[in-house]
Amino acid sequence: MPHVLTTASVLQCIHGGRLTVPAGGTALTVDDRPVLLEGDLAGATVTGCTNTNAAAGQTPCLTVTAVLAGLSTNLTVGGRPVLLETAQGLTNATPPAPVMWQVASAGQTKLTAQ
Q1: Gap between the Cα atoms of 11 and 100, Å rounded
Q2: Three-state secondary structure of 13-35
Q3: I need a labelling partner for 75 at 20 to 30 A (CA). Which of 37, 57, 94, 98 fits?
Q4: Residue 70 phi, psi (nearest 5)
Protein backbone atom coordinates (compact mmCIF):
# COMPACT_ATOMS: atom_id res chain seq x y z
CA MET A 1 0.00 0.00 0.00
CA PRO A 2 1.21 3.52 -0.73
CA HIS A 3 2.38 5.85 2.01
CA VAL A 4 0.25 8.80 3.09
CA LEU A 5 1.58 12.28 2.26
CA THR A 6 2.38 14.80 4.98
CA THR A 7 3.81 18.30 5.07
CA ALA A 8 7.24 16.57 5.04
CA SER A 9 6.54 15.11 1.58
CA VAL A 10 8.53 16.26 -1.44
CA LEU A 11 6.41 17.04 -4.51
CA GLN A 12 7.94 18.18 -7.81
CA CYS A 13 6.92 19.25 -11.27
CA ILE A 14 8.37 17.15 -14.10
CA HIS A 15 10.97 19.91 -14.68
CA GLY A 16 12.37 19.59 -11.16
CA GLY A 17 10.56 22.51 -9.55
CA ARG A 18 9.38 21.95 -6.01
CA LEU A 19 5.80 22.38 -4.83
CA THR A 20 5.36 24.38 -1.66
CA VAL A 21 3.43 22.01 0.56
CA PRO A 22 0.78 23.82 2.62
CA ALA A 23 0.75 23.81 6.41
CA GLY A 24 -2.19 21.37 6.51
CA GLY A 25 -4.53 20.64 9.38
CA THR A 26 -3.70 18.89 12.63
CA ALA A 27 -6.48 16.29 12.90
CA LEU A 28 -4.13 13.51 11.73
CA THR A 29 -0.36 13.65 11.93
CA VAL A 30 2.57 11.34 11.26
CA ASP A 31 5.85 12.14 13.02
CA ASP A 32 4.21 15.40 14.19
CA ARG A 33 3.61 16.47 10.56
CA PRO A 34 0.04 17.06 9.34
CA VAL A 35 -1.30 14.65 6.71
CA LEU A 36 -2.25 16.22 3.36
CA LEU A 37 -5.91 16.00 2.36
CA GLU A 38 -7.93 16.42 -0.80
CA GLY A 39 -7.96 20.14 -1.63
CA ASP A 40 -4.78 20.99 0.31
CA LEU A 41 -2.74 21.37 -2.89
CA ALA A 42 -5.25 23.59 -4.73
CA GLY A 43 -3.25 26.61 -5.89
CA ALA A 44 -0.01 25.42 -4.26
CA THR A 45 3.01 27.27 -5.64
CA VAL A 46 5.93 25.79 -7.56
CA THR A 47 9.45 27.20 -7.33
CA GLY A 48 12.56 26.36 -9.31
CA CYS A 49 10.84 25.06 -12.46
CA THR A 50 13.27 24.96 -15.39
CA ASN A 51 10.62 25.06 -18.13
CA THR A 52 11.70 28.61 -19.04
CA ASN A 53 12.68 28.74 -22.74
CA ALA A 54 10.55 31.71 -23.81
CA ALA A 55 11.76 31.39 -27.43
CA ALA A 56 10.13 27.95 -27.51
CA GLY A 57 6.93 29.29 -25.95
CA GLN A 58 7.60 27.71 -22.57
CA THR A 59 6.31 29.13 -19.32
CA PRO A 60 7.36 27.67 -15.97
CA CYS A 61 5.19 25.75 -13.55
CA LEU A 62 4.00 28.30 -11.00
CA THR A 63 0.88 26.78 -9.46
CA VAL A 64 -0.91 23.46 -9.09
CA THR A 65 -4.13 23.39 -11.09
CA ALA A 66 -5.36 19.84 -10.41
CA VAL A 67 -4.88 16.58 -8.55
CA LEU A 68 -5.64 13.73 -10.96
CA ALA A 69 -4.71 10.66 -8.91
CA GLY A 70 -3.59 9.49 -5.51
CA LEU A 71 -6.60 10.07 -3.27
CA SER A 72 -7.22 7.38 -0.67
CA THR A 73 -10.35 5.27 -1.04
CA ASN A 74 -10.36 4.09 2.58
CA LEU A 75 -8.81 6.80 4.80
CA THR A 76 -10.43 10.18 5.27
CA VAL A 77 -10.15 13.03 7.74
CA GLY A 78 -13.25 15.14 8.22
CA GLY A 79 -14.75 13.47 5.15
CA ARG A 80 -11.78 14.42 2.93
CA PRO A 81 -9.57 11.66 1.45
CA VAL A 82 -5.89 11.74 2.37
CA LEU A 83 -3.31 12.12 -0.40
CA LEU A 84 -1.07 9.15 -1.18
CA GLU A 85 2.42 8.83 -2.63
CA THR A 86 0.74 7.83 -5.92
CA ALA A 87 -0.61 11.39 -6.23
CA GLN A 88 -0.02 13.34 -9.40
CA GLY A 89 -1.64 16.23 -11.16
CA LEU A 90 -1.32 19.29 -13.35
CA THR A 91 0.40 22.66 -13.21
CA ASN A 92 -0.20 25.84 -15.21
CA ALA A 93 2.98 25.61 -17.35
CA THR A 94 3.06 25.48 -21.15
CA PRO A 95 3.82 23.57 -23.43
CA PRO A 96 3.15 20.72 -23.73
CA ALA A 97 -0.16 20.40 -22.01
CA PRO A 98 -0.78 18.80 -19.66
CA VAL A 99 2.24 19.52 -17.49
CA MET A 100 2.50 17.17 -14.55
CA TRP A 101 3.65 17.18 -10.95
CA GLN A 102 4.33 14.06 -8.92
CA VAL A 103 5.61 12.79 -5.58
CA ALA A 104 9.39 12.55 -5.20
CA SER A 105 9.22 11.34 -1.57
CA ALA A 106 6.33 10.61 0.78
CA GLY A 107 8.47 11.94 3.63
CA GLN A 108 7.36 9.19 6.02
CA THR A 109 7.13 5.38 6.14
CA LYS A 110 4.76 4.75 9.08
CA LEU A 111 1.26 5.22 7.64
CA THR A 112 -0.12 3.63 4.48
CA ALA A 113 -3.60 3.51 2.95
CA GLN A 114 -5.43 2.46 -0.19
Answers
A1: 11
A2: ECCCCEECCCCCCCCCEECCEEE
A3: 98
A4: 95, 25
